[in-house]
Amino acid sequence: MKSSFFLLLSMLILISLGCLGCSREGLATGAMPPTEDAPPVAPANASPGFKPSISLGEIAELERAGGYFPGLGLAESGLHESAGDYGAAVIASYKELSWAYGYGSVDKPSVEDGIRQVLEYLESQSLNAGTDEGKARSNAVNAAKGVLAFSGEDWKDAASLLNAAGFDGDESDSFARWMLLVCSLETGDEAARLLYGAIRARYSNFPEYWYRGARGFKGNIASSYAEQCINLNPQGHFAPECRKIIAGNLGLGGKGEAIRSKAEIEDGIKRSVSAEDPRLLEDILPLMSLPDNVYTLYALGSLKALAAYPVFKEYFSEQASLSGGRLAERLSYISRG
Predict the structure, then answer these.
(1) CA 174 to chain centre
(2) Which DSSP category does 333 fall into?
(3) Are 118 and 77 in contact (CB under 8 A)?
(4) Which mean pLDDT values do the consecutive 10-residue runs of the chain (337 residues) have?
(5) For 72-101, b where at least 16 C-beta lie within 10 A, e where not — what string?
(6) How far, in Å, CA of 325 to CA of 298, rounded?
(7) What is the Cα 56 distance to its own chain's centre?
(8) Which of 242, 216, 217, 241 is nearest to 228 (CA)?
(9) Distance, CA of 165 to CA of 159 (rounded, Å)
(10) Does the keyword Lipoprotein apply (predicted)?
(11) Cα–Cα distance between 158 and 146 in angstroms, integer?
């Protein structure tokens, strides 16, 4: 079962992603990007005898240093599979897909279809439940079902199934333990909030880690989580709701689409100045029409400095004449330098 199981997991991920790996479209936020010096890992179409030149401990330390990169989840899955821990192999493969989903490289139906095919394969195997192999298969079945429940946000069933898959001995910041923590966080468990920040280092580059934190916390802490999620991938699946969370915490319910993080504002200004094209600032203008808030005021101060350049001064003056209300007032103020 071992080689065919891992090859199935690998092929399903490749089909879902279209290729091994996914591009990151996030903004520079100080987190360590996937490193070019990352150790080699097993390609998904490797022969059954190929072993990644990396250990589970090294993978964990890479993740804690913010160095997760596409393919690392597959390498981890292969290591777990080689050890006969099929449940952990399923979870590691889901981690690979979760990363890809967070960066927009795969959609949720593709993720869930892939896990369902893994589940169908596992349930088709005839193994003695009294053997170690049978227990491993049972754990994998529960893990796959738990992943599907988690993806469907059925937190009670997800927690029950993941607990049944035997992850009690995992490190406190393993992906399975993170999933269980999310199940508790999403159901309002206060203790989960106290534990959630403690595993931040390992998931600093995972959009969903920040998204779940944004949903689980309140006020400024929730906004901080939401902003970091947006920064990792402004066009990602989680960004729209994170913008709504920030707007709601600012008393600007219904205005989430106009919210831009400070990193987005800086990135927009940098690109506009580099191209000497003020039209690249258009994405920021809806933010300027909102009532006073930290993001609008940050943009106001940042854009005002650009009025020292004639091409930008002219653009702001023109946009002010074409706009009305609060936006026109602010653009007029900016254009005066």
Answers:
(1) 16
(2) H
(3) no
(4) 58 55 53 42 43 86 94 92 93 94 92 90 78 89 97 98 92 96 96 95 97 97 98 96 98 96 98 97 97 97 95 96 95 91
(5) bbbbbbbbbbeeebbbbbbbbbbbbbbbbb
(6) 19
(7) 22
(8) 242
(9) 10
(10) yes
(11) 5
